[in-house]
């Protein structure tokens, strides 16, 4: 399965970059993520529970970051094992580009392979589930980053300022 898209995010590039590298932010943004622990400068261990059709699967995963070009992007790769349900492996190239002082464009290209019993559910169901979880991730991520810069309260109310390294206080 392959996915490619772009998302406008309501924060400066440095703030988005910091959030994408913060295990607690990612844990809160990833649907079904029960645990996310940094294992080094370029890796994480994760436990994620997802529901695909009638199956609920708990994946234990290893995630690695490569081709890191702070604060412009990286490649994130992972492999998860869901016991008898099967496995998932994939990677995504993430690119960040400033749009304005308080907004960043994130482009991503992702590729994923699934095997085992999960794969028997069919590509259509797996694709729609992946898209649903991706939409949930971005909704959660936007919420963590704060309101859009043109909102009545503005970026200052979200706590995003250069004096704070571009990070919201709740990050």
Characterization of this structure:
A seven-stranded antiparallel β-sheet has the order 1-7-6-5-4-3-2, covered by helices on one side. Mean pLDDT is 89; it is low at 151-171. With 171 residues, it is an alpha+beta fold. Strand 6 (87-100) and strand 7 (103-115) form a beta hairpin. It is built from four helices and seven strands, in the order βααββββββαα. The chain has helices spanning 13-20, 23-29, 123-145, 154-157; strands at 2-9, 33-40, 43-52, 55-69, 73-81, 87-100, 103-115. The chain has one domain: Alpha-D-Glucose-1,6-Bisphosphate, Chain A, domain 4. Helix content is 25%, strand content 45%. The longest helix has 23 residues, at 123-145.
Number of domains: 1
Count of runs of 4 or more consecutive helical residues: 4
CATH class: Alpha Beta
Mean pLDDT: 89
How would you name the CATH homologous superfamily?
START domain
The coarse silhouette is: globular
Largest sheet: 7 strands, antiparallel
Q: Can you write the helix and strand succession as a string?
A: EHHEEEEEEHH
Q: Order of strands across the biggest sheet?
A: 1-7-6-5-4-3-2
What is the number of beta strands?
Answer: 7
The share of residues in helices is: 10-25%
CATH architecture: 2-Layer Sandwich
CATH topology: Alpha-D-Glucose-1,6-Bisphosphate, Chain A, domain 4
Structural class call reads: alpha+beta
Short description:
With 171 residues, the chain is of the alpha+beta class. 25% of the residues lie in helices and 45% in strands. The protein is globular, with a radius of gyration of 16 Å.
């Amino acid at each position: 399965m392959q996915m490619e898209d772009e998302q406008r995010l309501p924060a400066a590039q440095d703030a988005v970059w910091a959030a994408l590298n913060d295990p607690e932010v990612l844990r809160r943004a990833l649907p079904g993520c029960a645990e996310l622990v940094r294992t080094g400068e370029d890796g994480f261990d994760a436990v994620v529970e997802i529901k695909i059709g009638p199956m609920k699967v708990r994946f234990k995963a290893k995630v690695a970051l490569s081709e890191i070009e702070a604060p412009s992007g990286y490649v994130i790769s992972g492999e998860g094992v869901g016991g008898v349900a099967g496995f998932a492996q994939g990677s995504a190239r993430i690119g960040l580009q400033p749009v304005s002082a308080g907004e960043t464009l994130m482009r991503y290209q992702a590729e994923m392979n699934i095997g085992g019993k999960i794969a028997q559910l069919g590509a259509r169901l797996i694709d729609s589930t992946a898209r649903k979880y991706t939409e949930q991730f971005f909704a959660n991520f936007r919420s963590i980053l704060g309101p859009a810069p043109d909102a009545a309260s503005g970026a200052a109310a979200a706590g995003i300022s250069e004096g704070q390294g571009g990070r919201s206080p709740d990050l």
